[in-house]
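Subject: Protein record for review, amino acid sequence with backbone structure tokens
Why sent: The fold of this protein is of interest and is recorded here as tokens.
Notation: Tokens come from a learned vocabulary of local backbone shapes, not from coordinates.
Attached in line: The record itself begins immediately under this heading.
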Amino acid sequence: MSRSVVHDPTDWITASSIGPPGDRTFYVQSRRDGEYVALVAEKSQIRSLAELGQELLERVDITVTPDDVTGDQELHGPIQPLWRAGQMSLGLDPDDEMFVLEIVELVVEGDEEPATARFVMDLERMVGLVAFAAFAVEHGGRERCQVCEGLRDPLMGCMGCPLTNGSGPKRI
């Protein structure tokens, strides 16, 4: 059986991707007591995580905006995923006011018992997870330009930036 994981609570959690658009690999990554755990996920799972997360946050009168995306939500490498995510569920424990992400390993029918992951997070971590998951899906996890706040292409720089007149990296 693969390794099951419980981070209750997690110190940090994110959902993001690595690779160029069209060839990205998506991950959920969590840290507890210095231990990083990464699980491979599908783009559709990360999109659903962001959408359901926003719905749960709206129940407690929180709306996630692009301003909630922070640089500390980037994946931490090297990434060595434990396993591939199958079923994912996200919920709110109203008694503890904590959010819970549960993931069950994707296994081939008839194979071993699937591993599970349980990540418990507070409101601040939930907002960060939802914001960055949406950012990763919609914008490929690309950084924003510090000048114009447009999306930066990893090879060409910021194509719409007024400093570069929309022609790529600034040359001095």
